[in-house]
Structures are given as structure tokens and as C-alpha cells.
Design brief:
- The complex is a heterodimer of chains A (147) and B (111).
- Chain A is of the alpha+beta class.
- Chain A has a single domain, classed as Histidine kinase-like ATPase, C-terminal domain (Heat Shock Protein 90, 2-Layer Sandwich), CATH 3.30.565.10.
- In chain A, 31% of the residues lie in helices and 24% in strands.
- Chain A contains three helices and five strands.
- In chain A, strands 1-2-3-5-4 form a five-stranded antiparallel beta sheet, with helices on one face.
- In chain A, helix 1 packs antiparallel against helix 2 and helix 2 runs antiparallel to helix 3.
- The two termini of chain A are 24 Å apart.
- Chain B has one domain: Transcription Regulator spoIIAA.
- Chain B contains four helices and five strands, in the order E-E-H-E-H-E-H-E-H.
- A five-stranded mixed beta sheet of chain B has the order 1-2-3-4-5.
- In chain B, helix 1 links the parallel strand 2 and strand 3.
- The longest helix of chain B has 16 residues.
- The chains are: A alpha+beta (147), B alpha/beta (111).
- The interface between A and B is medium-sized, with 27 and 25 residues.
């Protein structure tokens, strides 16, 4: 195995919209550490932002104020991002279903198709003790330019 | 993390020029701008996204909401976007078939 030491990042954010951008830029920075292509970096930023937006929305929907946990693990050929919340169970009333979200009034329902189109692996599970865990993996394309 | 929203008129159309990032934090300003325009009587709206650095599903949702509102009043909404990172998001979600997207403001206004 020629696997190099792996930088791991973990951060907790308050479940508020202004912190979603913090995670987005953090995910971009981590992806750049792996010398991934600009497109890969943009995908990582968008995936992290989408998952955190959902976590913030679900936490608000639950009337909770628990922090959202975000971790990123940079592997040789992939980036794994995990976003965990203590919000409303997404399986019961997914924020990713087409609806107007109570908290913002925005048209929604676009997050899941966007995530599915962006990442190579996606899972959304109930979190032990309540809430949700979103796991996403972005795999470097074989022909991807290293920048 | 910021979004500048400027509105103006050109060739009879209401032009919304965006600069910065559109996400769950900044999107409310765009949403309110589009609501104000439609409620103010605008029926021909062009949203210039050439200077947008980031767009997520929340921003897309705001644009969809604006399109619905203006269509309810027999109006139209066009987008200006050429960056791959932005166009890709419309393609993935299928919204590139919903919004008329142009390569320049002049092309959007002349269509």
C-alpha cells in the first residue's frame, strides 16, 4: 500500500444558514489538499453545501438547536464527506422531497437529484439517537487532471 | 460569503445582475428581489448569472419560484450563464429544459 498519511477534518457548526458557506469553503480546501481538479473541488464544495443545507433545515424543522457534525476524509483517489444532524428524520418527511420548506418558503426538492448527479456514492440513514447521517463519496476520475 | 443583487432595466426588460454566491444564506435576497419585481409589474425578467461563483439547490429553488410567479402573470424569465460550474447544475437537475439560458445579456434581450 502506498497510501500517504491522510488529512482528516472534523467540524461542528451551529444549525444556521450563515455557517453553510463555512463548510463549503472548508470542503473546497480539503479537496484542494488532494490536488484534485478544479471540477472535483467544485463538486466537493457543492456536495458539502447541499448536505449542510439539508441538515440545517431538518434541525430547524425539529425545533432543535443541536450542532451539525461534518467530517471529510481525503483518500488517495476519493473524498468522503459525512454530515450528521439531530434534526427531523429525513425518512419520514425528507427535505429533499418536492415541497415548500417551512423555514424558508423556498421551492425545494432539487437537492437530492443534484447530490445524486454530483457524487459517486450517496447514503442517507437515520442517526442513532435521532437525526440523519448523509455519507457522500466523490471519486477521482481516472483521466482527471491533477492541478 | 456574499451576494450582490442589482436591478435595472434595459431594452424594456428588468435585469437582475448577480455577483457572488447563492446559497441558503444569501438566497432570500434574490427571492425578495424577484418577488418585488413581479409584484411591481415586471413581466420580462433577465437574471444575469455571469458573475455568480456558486449556486446550489436553494438558489435554483428561488429561480424556479421566480419563474412560476412571473409565468402566473403571463411573463417570462431568462437566464444568462456561461460558466460550466453553473450550467452543470441546471443540466443535472433538468432545469436547463425549463429556463431559457443565454450566453450573453445582449442575446437574452434580443431573443
Amino acid at each position: 500500500m502506498s497510501q500517504a498519511p491522510l488529512p482528516d477534518v472534523e467540524v461542528e457548526i451551529p444549525p444556521r444558514p450563515e455557517y453553510v458557506g463555512v463548510v463549503r469553503h472548508l470542503m473546497g480546501a480539503v479537496a484542494r489538499l488532494g490536488q484534485h481538479s478544479p471540477e472535483f473541488v467544485e463538486n466537493a464544495k457543492l456536495a458539502g453545501s447541499e448536505a449542510c443545507t439539508n441538515a440545517v433545515e431538518l434541525t430547524g424543522r425539529a425545533g432543535a438547536d443541536d450542532r451539525v457534525d461534518v467530517s471529510a476524509t481525503l483518500l488517495e483517489d476519493r473524498l468522503e464527506i459525512v454530515v450528521s444532524d439531530r434534526g427531523h428524520n429525513a425518512g419520514e418527511a425528507p427535505v429533499i422531497a418536492p415541497t415548500d420548506t417551512p423555514a424558508t418558503g423556498f421551492e425545494s426538492g432539487l437537492s437530492l437529484p443534484l447530490l445524486e448527479g454530483l457524487v459517486d456514492e450517496l447514503s442517507i440513514d437515520a442517526r442513532e439517537g435521532g437525526g440523519n447521517v448523509v455519507r457522500m463519496t466523490l471519486v477521482r476520475e481516472f483521466e482527471e487532471d491533477v492541478g | 460569503m456574499n451576494l450582490d443583487v442589482e436591478t435595472g432595466t434595459k431594452d424594456g426588460a428588468s435585469v437582475v445582475t448577480l455577483r457572488g454566491e447563492i446559497d441558503v444564506y444569501t438566497a432570500p435576497r434574490l427571492r425578495q428581489t424577484l418577488i418585488d419585481l413581479v409584484e411591481g409589474g415586471a413581466t420580462d425578467i433577465v437574471v444575469d448569472m455571469e458573475k455568480v461563483d456558486f449556486l446550489d439547490s436553494t438558489g435554483l429553488g428561488v429561480l424556479v419560484g421566480g419563474l412560476k410567479r412571473v409565468k402566473d402573470r403571463e411573463g417570462s424569465m431568462k437566464l444568462v450563464a456561461t460558466q460550466d460550474r453553473i450550467l452543470k447544475i441546471f443540466d443535472i437537475t433538468g432545469l436547463s429544459k425549463v429556463f431559457p439560458i443565454f450566453g450573453s445579456l445582449d442575446k437574452a434581450l434580443g431573443s
